[in-house]
Amino acid sequence: MAHGMRMDAHSGYMDDGGGDWRDAATRYALLPLRVFLGVTFIYAGLDKLTDSAFMSDAGAGSVGDLMRTVRDSSAIPALVDLSLKNPVGFGYAIAFGELAVGIGTLIGLLARLAAFGGALISLSLWLTMSWASDPYYYGNDLPYLMAWLPLVLAGASVFSVDAMLRNRRRRGSGAGAY
């Protein structure tokens, strides 16, 4: 490294042919996870937004009834109580949050921030909805939380808006032209 700048040969946007297959595998390693989490969170958000039963204060399959059901078994009942003040608003907040996280992750736009949002959603769902799962690995929110962490740390290095913008800035500033 010279002057604290990255001097690697690849652009970070697409495979530019440099390096061996191990280098390419390392660059693309998180892409399947990014696609899976992005598509899953987009689907989850759309599923909630299009389910009129879910976006209700009460009734079978409603967010309100769901929150009342898990209230006493959650790790943080106060968080559930907060959501119960306006269950429909909470349902919309979760649905739009999942959409934003999913889209940001899938296209790689503010990917670390999107992944952090996904981790927060998964953490809040684990502490409320699936906390009482016994054994703990029956609840799916904890594995989702763990799946978001590599993307929080690494971001979206390939096939992403972030990488494209980073590459454009690098070319525009003349970095690496030493």
Query: For the terminal residues, how far apart are their CA atoms?
Result: 12 Å
Poorly predicted parts = 1-15
Q: Report the mean per-residue pLDDT as an integer.
A: 87
Give the H and E element order: HHHHHHHH
Please outline the major beta sheet.
none
Total helical elements? 8
- The shape, in one word, is elongated
Rg of Cα set: 20 Å
Number of strands: 0
Quickly give the structural class: mainly alpha
- The fraction of residues assigned to DSSP E strands is under 5%
Task: State the share of residues found in helices, binned by percent.
Answer: 55-70%
What's the gist of this structure?
The protein contains 8 helices and no strands. It is an all-alpha fold and 178 residues long.
Give me the secondary-structure topology.
Blueprint: H1 21-28, H2 31-49, H3 63-70, H4 77-84, H5 87-107, H6 111-128, H7 141-154, H8 161-173
Helix pairs in contact: 2-5, 3-4, 5-6, 6-7
Can you walk me through this structure?
- This protein is an all-alpha fold and 178 residues long.
- It has eight helices and no strands.
- Helix 2 runs antiparallel to helix 5, helix 5 packs antiparallel against helix 6 and helix 6 packs antiparallel against helix 7.
- The radius of gyration is 20 Å and the shape is elongated.
